[in-house]
Amino acid sequence: MADSVGFLGGRIPTEVEIMSKHLKDLDKELFRKILKVVVNAIEGKDCGGAMADIAQNSPLSEEMLSHIVSGMYELLKEALRLPTSSLKQEVFKEDLRGLRISEEFIADFASVVFGNRSTLDNVVKQQGPRIPSLEEFRWRVDVAISTSSLARALQPSILMQLKLSDGNVHRFEVPVSKFQEIRYNVALILKEMNDLEKRSILKIQD
Amino acid sequence: LANLIYLHSIREAVTYINAVDSSKFSRLLSRILQKLHLKGERSFSEDEEQKLQTALALEKQALHLVLETTSFLLEQAVYHNVKLPSLKQQLENIHVSPDKAEAFCQAWASAGPDMVEKIRQRIFAPKKLEHIGWQFNLQMARSSQAKLKAPHAVLDLGVQDEDKLECQQNIFVEFSHQELLEFYNKVRAD
Fold first, then answer.
1. N or C, which terminus of chain A has less Cβ within 10 Å?
2. Touching check for B113 and chain A: CB below 8 Å?
């Protein structure tokens, strides 16, 4: 009996419990196929074809297959929520042993969660409420020599174009003084970020 | 301005200008000069024009001519960034009476250079950055990620349409530490 709460939380999600029962009699190759499809789904890749393939060619009933898939998905999602610094591989494996999942399958799950996680992490970072971030940033400096209102203007101006992650493109002019203000403010935020990262609150490991 | 003397409308306008009461004309000049940089906006409203007609004893057509010509003369002054002696000379060349020429010069002396500067600052781009705000947060978690402690900044860029037709539009952009650093490097190389 574990003293601490496992990574799956105080109450094991039903999907995971049901899945663990079905995994007992599951063929290893089939397990790996299904696991691969679920990982692709989390990464956002198209897996409809592969899933249909498995559904047709396996001896599993549709109901069983859907239980297994949803259980795997839930398990992996919960594990991926935690940063690798906080969830240790041994603890993860112990928790899965508690569900009476076989060692081989535990090893496969562990290789997903503790293996190369960069794609998975990127996908997970994109989810959740977001304000658009900067995708592309371009600028140019113009000097207006003359205009219809002024024969000799000689006024420098900066034109900025921001392409955001939500697809919007914003183009606007920035007076030189405002440009300096942008630089000053960005440097100020960076300084605050650096100061904060040095402080002990961030060094607390949980 | 020298070529203007040959334009009939200018000559006619100058006649009217010269006939107008001097102090009223000075006020007229200040007002027109103040609004010169506003594109497409009339210097006077319908009501005000009615009042002017009475005050200056001018018919509607004549008033319009005076207003347009005065505006034109001031726009030319701005365009060439004219100096006072030159302005006086040019006005005399088109037969503007001395007292009216003096009124022009006084108005120009007090408000002219500022007007030139304002027009110089005017731009052609659709929008202009007016306001910069920001927020610096420490993101603790998301629905998809727990135990984050990620420094996170949001920039608020307030842009305004040049003609002030729409209200200020706020552009919000979020940055992680790394993204902000990249952005900073891009705005440094200037």
1. N
2. no
How does pLDDT run across B136-155, given as a tens digit for each residue?
998 888 888 888 888 889 99
Residues A192, A162 contacting (CB under 8 angstroms): no
Look at chain B and count its residues: 190
Which residue in this structure is represented by tokens 């006084």? B106
- Stretch B36-47: mean pLDDT, rounded? 74
Return the ∠ at Cα A105 (arms to A99 and A106), rounded to 5°.
60
Would you call A170 and B153 a contact, using CB atoms and an 8 Å cutoff?
no
φ/ψ of residue B42, rounded to 5: -75, 145
Dig out the tokens for B11 from the structure: 């000559």
Q: Supply the angle between the helices A118-126 and A28-43 in degrees, to the nearest 10.
A: 40
Residues 8-67 in B contacting A (C-alpha not used; CB under 8 Å): none
Single pTM value for the model: 0.67
Encoded tokens for A25: 């009699």
In this structure, which amino acid lies at residue A15?
A: E
Residue type, B34: Q
Comparing CB atoms, the residue among B138, B146, B181 nearest residue A81 is B146
User: Which of A85, A71, A80, A86 minimizes the C-alpha distance to A110?
Assistant: A80
Q: Which of A141, A175, A193 sits opposite B177 (nearest CB)?
A: A193
pLDDT at A2: 43
**Predicted interface score ipTM higher than 0.95:** no
* A40 class by beta-carbon count within 10 Å (0-12 exposed, 13-18 middle, 19+ buried): middle
Q: Note whether A73 and A35 are within 8 A (CB).
A: no
Question: What CA–CA distances, in Å, run from A190 to A125, A162, B129, B182, B184?
Answer: 21, 20, 22, 11, 9
Find chain B residues with C-beta within 8 A of A130's C-beta: 174
